Amino acid sequence: MNRRKKGNQILKARAKKANAKLSSSNKPKYISKADRAAMAAESTEDTVPNDD
């Protein structure tokens, strides 16, 4: 691989990483299974009315 190609390859890789860092993802943030279970339990606890 010649010098010019190697230099361009490094610069392209660096630019690609910078663009990836700047772009935002549409993917929702990961919530662990335990946290999802706790949230579900909390939400069902709040929605059930008490007959006291």
Low-confidence stretches: none
Distance between the termini: 79 Å
Average pLDDT rating: 88
Strand runs, count: 0
Roughly what percent helix?
55-70%
> What would you call the structural class?
mainly alpha
Number of helical elements:
2
Kindly estimate the percentage of residues that lie in beta strands according to DSSP: under 5%
Whole-angstrom Rg: 24 Å
Q: Shape from CA axes? A: rod-shaped
Instruction: Report the order of strands and helices.
Output: HH
Q: Sheet bearing the most strands, described?
A: none
Commentary on this structure:
The mean pLDDT is 88. The protein has helices at 3-22, 33-47. The longest helix has 20 residues, at 3-22. The radius of gyration is 24 Å and the shape is rod-shaped. The protein has 52 residues and is an all-alpha fold.
List the helices and strands and how they pair.
Elements: H1 3-22, H2 33-47
Quick overview:
By secondary structure, the protein is mainly α.
Any descriptors?
mainly alpha
